[in-house]
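Contributing new complexes? Match this layout with guanosine-5'-diphosphate.
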Amino acid sequence: MEKKPEDEISTSLSSENVINSLMSNSEKPNLEPTYIKEIRVAVIGNVDSGKSTLVGCLTKNIKDDGRGYARKFVFNYQHESETGRTSSIAEEILGFKNHVPVDIGRISDKKNISWKEIAEKSDSVITLLDLCGHEKYLKTTMYGLTALLPDYAIILIGTNMGVQRMTKEHLGIAVSLNVPFFIVFTKIDIAPKDIKEKTITTFSNLLKTGLQKTIYNVKSMEDAKACSQAIIGGVVVPIFQISTVTGEGLDYLKNFLANLTPRHSLNSDNHIIKTPQDPTEMLLDSAFNTKVGVIYAGVLSSGKLFVGQKLLMGPTLDGIFKPVQIKSIQFLRCDVNEICCGNSCSVKLRSLDKGFELNTQNFKKGMVLVSENHLPPTLEFEIEAVIVHHSSTIKIGYQSVIHSNVVRQTATITGMNKEFMRAGDTGIIKFKFLKKPEYLHMGDVVLFREGRTRGKGKIINIFPFDLNKYNEEKKNAGMKKSKKMLPKNKVVGVGKENNKEDKKDFVQKKKGKK
Ligand SMILES: Nc1nc2c(ncn2[C@@H]2O[C@H](COP(=O)(O)OP(=O)(O)O)[C@@H](O)[C@H]2O)c(=O)[nH]1
Ligand SMILES: [Mg+2]
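Output block (do not edit by hand):
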């Protein structure tokens, strides 16, 4: 049965190629773990703006034909190739040695071959995260931006199409998460001059007046290099004008990417990635089955990870952590013995608890791998919030989907420091998760959304989680539910038949037969 790609990052990241790669361990040389620096760059923007095409052109060193040629090398799924629409998150890498792009050899969409070759030749790698532009997949795009901890974001705008609502939505998420971003106006080969000027002016004004950014139009290789440093503070927004069909502007963009610095190495306060000396913490974004067992992928946000290391995995649905051991690690599809924080990787684990089986069913979004001295999981937390968009008022009892790093779960507002909040209001909101305790960090950014409602905040309080109280509450809730499910004077099973009969009756009545 085909999985639902929009729902499962687990199906989209790495999957098939990682699996094959992990299965043929003996054939691959090991990589020096600290040798390569990885920089994750999220590609966002409206559907059809050219995101997958740009990822294909940059990573395969090809030009597009304007009819979907280059994006074919990027898609994860057959149905994506057929419809041309990205519904999952695809990753492709671009390697550099001494800030010069490495020769990728033969073009291949087999990531095992190409990634390994690139990794072996490079001293830095840009991982491009091709996200979905369609509104239908907004939750996947939001999850990609929060869970995969991108260092930077490219906001792509089809110059011929103008600035769309989804472009602004994606821009808002990048700003809320403090991810420095740059703008790429693409398809300049087919944009009429007046539309091109209007699109660029409208968006530049939005950045300048709406967000107080300084924009910089990149027009030379020197500009590109200078901008790769200037972007770090998040104030300067470099702007590129390109065409993937004629190739115009692509060299500047490549030179800019070649000189970017991983954000975590800059010790910026608002970045979640810690140092290799801190306790280990890996934020798991996906789990997938392979012939050799389940593989977990994620970003190492703190400390180091090494083969043989004993760690804890959780929180489970019951809010506990289970002991596991690292069996193998892959970074850029290559086996490594050790890896430092800041990089994404996939791991194979061994359960050290006989009662805990490692499988994709008991993997839940929000799980982490941590050392023993980890933070406690929590059900309730407080944020300093601002309501970005809401049509009426938000009160106690309001429910919303919470995004914070790998956490994505619905929560209810259980407390507020004011009676209600409207769009533009700030205040302190207390949330309680509906399904399970989560692993949160003080100071981390939280985004919440429901329909068109958007809010953001910073975690200022995490309430200790009481396992006994939680289990008691769950038991009570379960009892209430089962009582509700068996209403008095009703025999389960027969009701169904009665309903069928009722329906038949109703239809016959309507047709005037009775
Ligand atoms: N003429 C022209 N077409 C482009 C350019 N970039 C992308 N396209 C075309 O635009 C269409 C949409 O591109 P795609 O990458 O699927 O957009 P996405 O939905 O943002 O990923 C495809 O048919 C591409 O061939 C460009 O620079 N010039
Ligand atoms: Mg796409």
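Reviewers usually confirm one structural detail per submission. For this one: Residues 32-266 form a domain with the Rossmann fold fold (CATH 3.40.50.300).
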